[in-house]
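Sequence in, structure out.
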Amino acid sequence: DHFPNEFGEYNSVVRIGTPMLFQLDGYPTANRVFLSGSFNNWSDYEVALRKTPGGWEVPYILGPGNHEYRFLIDGKPDSAQNHSLILDPNFTFRSKAFKHAKTVYLAGDFNKWSPTMLPMKRIGEEWVVDVHLSKGKHLYKFIVDGEWVLDPANKLWEDNEEGTGNSVLWVE
């Protein structure tokens, strides 16, 4: 396979990972659209999208993980918040602790402590979110109605630089 780079030159491509087709509907008058995300160190002009009859698209290979991305339309982000994409989720966080909460998010070292990337969904009495975790130790917190809190169901925690602690999870 070969795809054009940002200069219109063609390079050989070896695919390792999951092929994704990133699509952005609309924007017929845009001159250039780029994909930027955690998977390319937020490089704004590395991955150019091709114009299609309905919008813009680009194939891109991603490995397992918790990814964030955005589109840049003529140099401006497509939205105020980044989009999230979880590939090969292998762990489910669950909590019954926040019965009266309106919003619960999960943040940790596995998503660079992003406070909005991993919204949890209320399913019955629980707040739930699926993520991809590598083997080893992970630090995390819940963000409940804007307040960062330890996992009340997990007795494992360690101190942090703010003195508020982080919950600890080990994946084998």
